[in-house]
Amino acid sequence: MTDKQRNFITRAVFGILFVVVILCSFTRADFMIGLFALITGLTIWEYAGLVNGIKGVRINRFISTVAGVYFFLAVAVLELGMVSSFVVFVPYILCVIYLFVAELYLKNESPILSWAYTMLGQMYIAFPLSLINILAFGNGDVSVGGSANMLLPLSVFILLWANDTGAYCTGSLLGRHKLFPRISPAKSWEGSIGGGVLSIIVAALIGHYGANGSGTKGMDIMVWIGLGVVVVVFGTWGDLVESLFKRTIGVKDSGKILPGHGGMLDRFDSSLLAIPAVVVYLYTLSQF
User: Where is coiled-coil annotated (predicted)?
Assistant: First the structure.
């Protein structure tokens, strides 16, 4: 067996496991919260390790990770109705204040860069991932351990996977015109269009066959098609943003935690812009 074949098998096996874990997490509210709190922590930890390799930058990896996970959990309990006060965010605010004040005493070479990269991690990773709680529990009728219809947040990932699959297949067969050669030479306009078409078809199918449960009432097929367009556009931008980030710091993969798939940022880059965009889209249409 050649290295290329072994890599393909490894990638396929872990890709299937990844999809299965994500799908299973949306069967219960506590499963989803637990998995995505872990994803938030691992992704921020990975991010902090990458930026700490930049000359003059030194961020507190542990506290940044704890703060990000806490923010995710705070949004979750707030959306579940377990607390009803903004006071749940006070510990997070204190963490952020500490991260700023600590630079007065650490004597880092470039404290402003350290501040900037610290807050970028929170805004780029913790904030977007925490918004999945709004998609899952925005209607406020889900218990922590309950079996919830969380088709809406799950559909974001299904549409992202459809976009990636369609883009890869179409781009491999027909790709001629580069989409963004300066940042991602492998992506083509043909692939992006193919991925977009497949995602919109999948969105229409979800709207027709599956969108009649909690959190999706009032969403007709046209709303779902619009959601598909939003996921395609912002998911593609999310992928390109992460590519720009990696090029800026000079790495090929963000990590090696997922064999054949790179790091956590590599797997969730598209969702970091797609999830906030979907929340804005649905709130704009007054779906909640």
Answer: none
Instruction: Give the 3-state secondary structure percentages of the chain, helix then strand then coil, rounded to 5.
Output: 70, 5, 25
Q: Which residues pair with 180 in a beta bridge?
A: 184
DSSP letters spanning 17-29: HHHHHHHHHTTSH
Give the predicted TM-score (pTM) of the model.
0.90
CA dist 7 and 5 (Å) reads: 5
**DSSP label at residue 185:** E
**Could you give the angle at the alpha carbon of 223 between the alpha carbons of 204 and 30, nearest 5°?**
85
For 19, other C-beta atoms within 10 Å of its C-beta total 13
Q: Any alpha helices (H) in 26-148, and if so which ranges?
A: 29-51, 61-79, 90-101, 103-106, 111-121, 127-130, 132-137
For 184, the 3-state DSSP assignment is strand
Instruction: Note the pLDDT tens digit of each residue in 102-134.
Output: 999 988 888 999 999 999 999 999 999 999 999
Domain positions in the chain? 1-141, 149-287
**What's at 50, amino acid-wise?**
L
pLDDT-based confidence at residue 286 (cuts at 50, 70, 90) = low
| 257, 264 contact by CB (below 8 A) | yes
- SS3 label, residue 82: coil
Q: Are 254 and 265 in contact (CB under 8 A)?
A: yes
